[in-house]
Amino acid sequence: MSFRNRLTLFFIVIVIVPMIAVALVLFRLVSDSSNGKGDARLAQAQRAAQGLFREFQDRGEEAAGTIGGDQALAGAIRDKNRAAIQKRLTELATQVQAKRVVLRLDGQGSFEVGDKTAVAPAGSRLIDSREKAVGDLAVSTVLAQQYAELVARVTLLDAIVSVGDITLGTTIEGAEAEGVPLRGAIELQGRKYRVAGFQAPGFNGQTESVRVLADERSIGSGLEASSLLVGAALVGFLILAFAFALTVSRSLHAQVQRLLEAARALGAGNFAVEVPTEGNDEFAELGREFNSMARQLQTRLDELQLERQRLQEAIRRVGESFAKGLDRDALLSIVVQTAVDGVAASCGRAAVRQGPGSRLREVAVSGDVEAHHQAIQAAEAAALDAGEAAETQVGATNALARPLRASEHNSRVLGVISVARDGRAFTPGEKDLFNYLSNQAAVSIENVDLHETVQRQAVTDELTGLFNHRRFQEVISAEVERARRFDQPMGLIMLDIDNFKRVNDTYGHMQGDLVLREVARVLRESSREIDEPARYGGEEMAVALPQTDLEGAFQFAERVRQRIEGLELPILDGGGTLRVTASFGAASMTGAEDSDKDGLVASADAALYRAKRSGKNRTVKADSDGG
Question: HSE of 129 in the Cβ direction (CA atoms, 13 Å)?
Fold first, then answer.
């Protein structure tokens, strides 16, 4: 076999075969990545649809509370006047903007108002004045088609809402729910879709199904574009590799033997061997290049060792970034150190704002910033003034700074990151790398802020700023358990704003919201650091009082009651002021093992009920310790 043929075979084995393997791996990675993004997008859309569904259920629950508490409806039910019940139910449905209301009364049958395509109902039991259940109430505030279109606007995907196989709403014209699974793939009207969905209880014991559908074409378009790009790159590389191999084979074919021994030595890693360089022809020049290459390879090996150490350090930082994903300062420290290393700077720092309008606070430093303080300060000032990356030179020091923005379309500045070095300006490539790292830092800070906001909102009532009902249940359970473990008293007060419905009916809900906020403020300001004030529901609030006996709970309630009685609230739609009062129930439990949360809450609630019945604007103690 000739040298040229051997070189051709070598080219096929070393280049063509690995490139085919690489191509297969790349195409598989592109396919898996595209499918993964499609599945993630569909899962995110399903979570968004569930969130919207729960939001409408919450609205339905609020509307059900208003309807269930209506005195006129209660009177009609008590009188068993079906015409009056139907009429009042229709009026209340319009008042609370309900799309469908279903009332089932024990012994009186059913009453229904609204559109049968309404979904996301919330129900409640109707209790008469003797605390006896008289029926069930279910209320919906959204139609299936409205909900489907809202899901489509939020997720940018299609949606189908149904009861069983009956389609109530869809964003795919002519599509039916029959045969469409809650999860999987299906073909509708000649198009393939991926489906994810969920089910929830509906009216009259039926089950409502919500399906979110992603068109396979939207997923496949990204896959096709990525595959074409990968394929073009591979073909280009193969063409270049083949042309280079052909050129080299022709030039070496006649005179390769002369360099064979030297090449063997170099191949063995002996870079000290000198290739003969007699004469001035091309191979003499090639020999000199061989010798130069050997020296460069030795130098490159040394550099590669250093690069390997830097790579290990970078991998370690990536690991740290995963561990510190929600630690703003730790993330910025990693970003600053990476930026300093990446652009070969001498030092760097990052400063952030604690909130809108606040001053910048230095949170991360790398290297001797003080030695380059003037240049860094000038670069940061220029960057903040221009709203983009800026480079300055002060003496022999070059500094580069860039503001950290909340997002691509948001002008709010979260902070600034800067680096500096002596001797030479930053290259365009270094600036691009620095800008990329700055963008990643801004995204990380914004993600941390969003996480903190979501955590706070998850346990806080938006109107009053107090803990919400779910958080209160968690707190009271934990505090009761702690009281039992350490044999300590545990107090609880529950309060209800007197005649609150009259305030809403007379002055409007904005006035009612003001009353709730002001009462919540009094409750919050009166509480100790260990107390847990919460909005229990509607105009009813509660405070868990750790390490507080019944007398202490009573005294606390009296202080709060008197402060509320002393409030003078402005009337929003006219002159004058509004005075409000509240009724309180106080209870306490010992650390006895038979004490429990439900008993404590029931005792406080019963005391509150007696306070309301005995004239309001007073505090009543529970008959005995809760539990």
Answer: 8
DSSP at 175: -
533 bridge partner residues:
543
173 an active-site residue?
Answer: no
Are the C-beta atoms of residues 68 and 77 closer than 8 Å to each other?
no
Q: Which option is the CATH number for 469-621: 3.40.50.2300, 3.90.550.10, 3.40.1180.10, 3.30.70.270?
A: 3.30.70.270
- Starting at the edge strand that comes first in sequence, how are the strands of the sheet with 122-127 ordered? 109-114, 100-105, 133-140, 122-127
**pLDDT score for 624:** 55
Six-digit token pair at 14? 């070393």
Distances from the Cα of 189 to the Cα of 154, 156, 201, angstroms: 24, 19, 29
Q: How far apart are CA 209 and CA 167, in angstroms?
A: 9
Beta 619-621 vs 582-589: how paired, if at all?
Answer: parallel
Q: Which residues of the chain have pLDDT under 50?
A: 315, 319, 322-324, 625-627
Q: Say what the pLDDT of residue 446 is.
A: 73
Pairing between β-strand 540-546 and β-strand 490-497 as defined by DSSP bridges: antiparallel
- 285 vs 298: CA distance, rounded Å: 20
Which residue is listed with tokens 């860094």? 376
Residue 443's pLDDT is what? 78
Tokens of 291: 């010798």
Predicted TM-score of the model (pTM):
0.37
Residue whose structure tokens are 């004469």: 279
Residue 11 per-residue DSSP state: H
H-helix or E-strand spanning residue 26: helix 17-68
- Residue 375 contacts by C-beta under 8 Å, 6 or more apart in sequence? 392, 393, 394, 395, 397, 398, 399, 420
For residue 625, the model assigns a pLDDT of 45
**pLDDT score, position 617:** 96
DSSP 285-335: HHHHHHHHHHHHHHHHHHHHHHHHHHHHHHHHHHHHHHHTTT-HHHHHHHH
Only one residue has tokens 């009271």, namely 476
Place of tokens 């990052």: 350
Q: Which amino acid is at 22?
A: V
Cβ pair 79, 94 in contact under 8 A: no
Residue in 380, 391, 430, 539 annotated catalytic: 539
Helix 216-252 × helix 17-68 angle, to 10°: 160
**In the block, residue with structure tokens 């809650």:** 182
Nearest Cα to Cα of residue 162 among 148, 183, 141, 152: 148
What gap in Å lies between CA 444 and CA 307, rounded to an integer? 27
CA distance 295 to 284: 17
Three-state SS for 165?
coil
What is the topology classification, in CATH, of domain 324-453?
Beta-Lactamase (3.30.450)
551: region left, alpha or beta (phi > 0 left; psi from -120 to 50 alpha): alpha
